[in-house]
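re: that chain from earlier
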Amino acid sequence: MTSAMSYPFSAAFREALSARCLAFPRIAHEGEGLKRAAVAITLVEADDGSSQTAFLLTRRAAQMRAHAGQWALPGGRCDPGETFEQAALRELEEELGLHLPPQNILGVLDDYPTRSGYAITPVVAWLDNAGEMRLNPREVASAHRIRLDSIQGDDAIEFETIPESSRPVIRLRVADDHRIHAPTAALIYQFRELIAGRVTRVADLEQPVFAWR
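^ sequence. v structure.
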């Protein structure tokens, strides 16, 4: 797609990534009983002068009732009658003040069923200018641009076993050696694999025990 470990924020990269998203053989969750949610994997230009592509990742506000202070992709529960794409774009605007038209959506990846009773759908979108972010302080403590090349190395991903589950727990290193877990880490891992030209399923990747509620 591009030279090794380099993902320039360019029309050519957007076109190549859009083609991969379009060809992705998505698996949707068909079971009953799970609430539906969507998150936005929003691609922007890195803010370090590198002209590389990054994605937006937030730290949840400390006063949030659930998962306070955790790393997260912008997103939330789908409203009645909303598509996944509509929900992801609405949440992106509510949390970060960013308005994206539907034509900026590149594709939709696999649903991820969570231990807390949700099926999360990741929506991949492209944003030409993220300079006008207005963070909602009730939901977001900070927003970060994570370069795509920073998550491609072998040292960015760890899998571990836990006695409580036969499924491997995934950890993804971002932002100065912080490590995040599933579901966010699983969704980003699948997107990382897509960038590299691989179709990798992530529904069997486990969340840490503290996230089982």
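The helical segments are 11-23, 84-96, 184-195.
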